[in-house]
Amino acid sequence: MSLRVLRQMLAVCAALTSTLVLASDIEISQPAVRAMPPGAPASGAYVTLTNHSDQVRHLVSVESDAAKTVEIHLSEMQGDTMKMSQVASVTVPAHGQVALRPGSYHIMMMGLTQPIKVGDQIDFTLVMQDGERIAMQAPVLGPEDMARYTPAMKHKMMDHSQHQGETMDHGAHQADHAHH
């Protein structure tokens, strides 16, 4: 078995079995980062957040040294085109969960500071509205392993026309989009 195959198998096993319950009432499960070819300016990260408390929680930002800019985005259909925009926060309902996945809410990493290769682990800090900071480590997965995160998308194209260069400037932040 090659080292590459072994690393891929370990990354998949880590993603499938990864559930980290912290002192927080937020449970992190199935974290993953999409592997990108060398020189790619951006990548996406995904995770499921489960709220075990009686209070609604809000994810307001994400930090990582793996990119110059890390933002929370929402992809949604507008006619026959998938549009992606930055959002101010993601609501995690009381005793509920929200999945950050391709084609929905996700973590956008722009201006990558390092290659994002299969088998790597990327460190993140999730910042909640109340100031709580939650550490998360996500394995980097290749396209075949990312398939389980990707819903069947019924769109003709992904519109990135507003994204110029690495910063993908979205202008003013959009209002909070609650996703239940």
Descriptive notes:
This protein has helices spanning 3-17, 143-146, and strands at 19-21, 26-34, 42-51, 57-63, 67-78, 81-86, 90-92, 97-100, 105-112, 121-128, 133-141, 157-159. The model is unreliable at 13-22 and 152-180 (pLDDT under 50). Strands 1, 2, 3, 4, 5, 6, 7, 8, 9, 10, 11 and 12 form a twelve-stranded mixed β-sheet that branches. The termini are far apart. By secondary structure, the chain is mostly beta strands. Helices cover 11% and strands 46% of the residues. The protein is built from two helices and twelve strands.
Overall mean pLDDT stands at 80
Uncertain parts:
13-22, 152-180
End-to-end distance: 43 Å
How many helices in DSSP terms?
Answer: 2
Number of domains: 1
Basic shape: globular
Helix/strand structural class: mainly beta
What would the keywords be for this entry?
180 residues; Immunoglobulin-like; twelve-stranded mixed sheet; 46% strand
